[in-house]
Amino acid sequence: MGWITVTIRIVCLFTLLWSVNGIGVNWGTQASHLLPPDTVVRMLRENGIQKVKLFDADYGILKALGKTGIEVMVGIPNDMLASVGGSMKAAEKWVAKNVSEHISSNNVNIRYVAVGNEPFLETYNGSYLHITLPALSNIQSALIKAGIGSQVKVTVPLNADVYASSNTYPSGGDFRTDIFDPMLKIVKFLNDSNSPFTVNIYPFISLYTDSNFPVEYAFFDGNATPLNDGGTLYYNMFDANLDTLAHALQKNGFGNLPIIVGEIGWPTDGDRNANIEYARRFNQGFMSHISGGKGTPMRPVPIDAYLFSLIDEDEKSIDPGNFERHWGIFYFDGQVKYPLNLGTTNSGALIPAKGVQYLERKWCVMKPSAPLDDPQVAQSVSYACGLADCTSLGYGTSCGNLDARGNISYAFNSYFQKNNQLEKACEFPNVSVITKTDPTPTVGNCKFPIMIQPYYESAGRRFGCGQMPLPLVSVLLLLLLTVVQL
Ligand SMILES: *[C@@H]1O[C@H](CO)[C@@H](O)[C@H](O)[C@H]1NC(C)=O
Ligand SMILES: *[C@@H]1O[C@H](CO)[C@@H](O)[C@H](O)[C@H]1NC(C)=O
Ligand SMILES: *[C@@H]1O[C@H](CO)[C@@H](O)[C@H](O)[C@H]1NC(C)=O
Ligand SMILES: *[C@@H]1O[C@H](CO)[C@@H](O)[C@H](O)[C@H]1NC(C)=O
Ligand SMILES: *[C@@H]1O[C@H](CO)[C@@H](O)[C@H](O)[C@H]1NC(C)=O
């Protein structure tokens, strides 16, 4: 092979790596039962998904992403900002361990480090306001020092509430006054280091928090009354919101700073507006909306976006609302929720996870003989719901039409499944029983799920029950041989 061929190959590879586009996904891990990383990575590949965004630097997940070419945005959680922002050494260690090592030893295609996650949310009371920029700056310096500064860029995923419009039109956009100075410093830093601005945009939350929000304006069908911003018409909230940011950037001298949409999506349960129909309509609408690459009026360039999210997470905080545990385009077990064409598979359909290991087909339900007014019932339900997941119960949710017994059984079963079907987890005093008859109602979307096999992590490595680590297998084999010889 001549040097020209080699050069061409390198150039081609480089172009390929740099030109990866298409839709990305957020891969979160706040779940009681995670699918094995290899299973998820296979699912990503089969679905043609070329970009993932992570919320930390999970060793097992990064390992599974090695040699796949999938672009990775790896995250630094907010609670680590003080440490990497306060010490250059800590930042260097973080980069060495969580970026460099994965790139050099396992060819993980890490392209971005997300420094913090929505650190300026009002609910944090400014806790991260003055530590985010130092963290960003230290990580950037550490990347340069490690020789990967041009390959791996820094960014800060921010909630869309860091900016607002003074007059409800995108053209009135500017940064929130209480965080104006820190925002400007961050934007300047991103601009100077050739890094993108990352924003999370949620029309669902607008609809959830404001009962007067025009429903149609959340979607992309063009049925909403457009917003007329000095002659520019906005038919959906997404475009208007992104352009509010574009105006804010332009107003402050950063009109060319690239924008990444870090999170966008719609939940399928836990609220009257969170359902399969709306989620499909929103996500499919979004995919069609960006597929032409025409962008928004202010930013007529292809939109770089990550769907929120890949898989449901049953341990997310429900402080923002019960919908929080239902953002996935896949259920917790990697099964498809609804038809969604990402434009990345031949069939145009989503492909579910393969080889998923489930627990036995059994459920914990309310004992048929137990009376509804048994004083143990209410107490047991609130205990079960507190520790497991009852976000599919309630007005307008998937299991919202269950009768009182169905409700109670749902709560018991959730607790039982989350606890790996331990017999002890179905011993609500005299009111529960284990059954092999599926209690799932025959009509509607309500599901009484069977949990997946737990997947354990040990010393930075993860292994499933069926995949014991080699040393353990050898020891067992040795033991067996000894017994046979005796
Ligand atoms: C690497 O990332 C993990 C996961 O976020 C974190 O727990 C660990 O402390 C990081 N390592 C270093 C050396 O900072
Ligand atoms: C923010 O402040 C409020 C009111 O002072 C308090 O209730 C809340 O716990 C604080 N949150 C954080 C994350 O510090
Ligand atoms: C942003 O970066 C560009 C190019 O890197 C530079 O020309 C411009 O002056 C920067 N803008 C500001 C306001 O610093
Ligand atoms: C079932 O539970 C939900 C949520 O806890 C409650 O709103 C609903 O009223 C209950 N339904 C019945 C029939 O008890
Ligand atoms: C369970 O029921 C039995 C008989 O119906 C009764 O003797 C016992 O006290 C009950 N136990 C509890 C904890 O309610």
Describe this structure as you would to a colleague.
- With about 475 residues, the chain is of the alpha/beta class.
- The protein folds into 2 domains: about 1-325, Glycosidases (TIM Barrel, Alpha-Beta Barrel); about 365-485, Methane Monooxygenase Hydroxylase, Chain G, domain 1.
- Helix content is about 35%, strand content about 15%.
- Mean pLDDT is about 90; it is low at about 1-20 and about 460-485.
- Bound molecules: 2-acetamido-2-deoxy-beta-D-glucopyranose (5 copies).
- One 2-acetamido-2-deoxy-beta-D-glucopyranose binds near residues 56, 93, 94, 97 and 98.
Give me a quick take on this structure.
The chain folds into two domains: 2-325, Glycosidases (TIM Barrel), CATH 3.20.20.80; 363-485, Methane Monooxygenase Hydroxylase, Chain G, domain 1, CATH 1.20.58.
Topology:
Blueprint lengths: L2 H16 L5 E4 L9 H10 L4 E4 L4 H7 L5 E6 L4 H6 L1 H19 L2 E7 L16 H14 L7 E3 L1 E3 L3 E3 L7 E3 L4 H13 L4 E4 L2 H7 L5 H4 L8 E3 L2 E3 L2 H15 L7 E6 L11 H16 L12 E4 L55 E4 L8 H13 L16 H15 L13 E4 L19 E4 L2 E4 L5 H16 L1
Parallel strand pairs: 1-2, 1-13, 2-3, 3-4, 4-5, 6-9, 9-12, 12-13
Antiparallel strand pairs: 7-8, 10-11, 14-15, 16-17
Helix pairs in contact: 5-6, 6-7, 12-13
This protein binds 2-acetamido-2-deoxy-beta-D-glucopyranose (5 copies).
One 2-acetamido-2-deoxy-beta-D-glucopyranose binds next to α5.
How does the major sheet shape up?
9 strands, parallel
What overall geometry do the principal axes of the alpha carbons give? globular
Q: Give the spatial strand order of the biggest sheet.
A: 5-4-3-2-1-13-12-9-6
Helix percentage: 25-40%
Number of domains: 2
In round numbers, the mean pLDDT is 91
What is the CATH class of the largest domain?
A: Alpha Beta
Quickly give the CATH architecture of the largest domain. Alpha-Beta Barrel
What is the CATH topology classification name of the largest domain?
Answer: TIM Barrel
Task: Detail the poorly predicted runs.
Answer: 1-20, 458-486
CATH homologous superfamily identity of the largest domain: Glycosidases
| Rg over CA atoms | 25 Å
- Report the β-strand fraction as a percent range: 5-15%
Oligomer state of the chains in this structure: single chain
**Tally of contiguous helical segments:** 14
In terms of structural class, how would the helical and strand content be classed? alpha/beta
Task: List the bound ligands.
Answer: 2-acetamido-2-deoxy-beta-D-glucopyranose
Distance between the termini: 60 Å
**Total number of β-strand segments?**
17
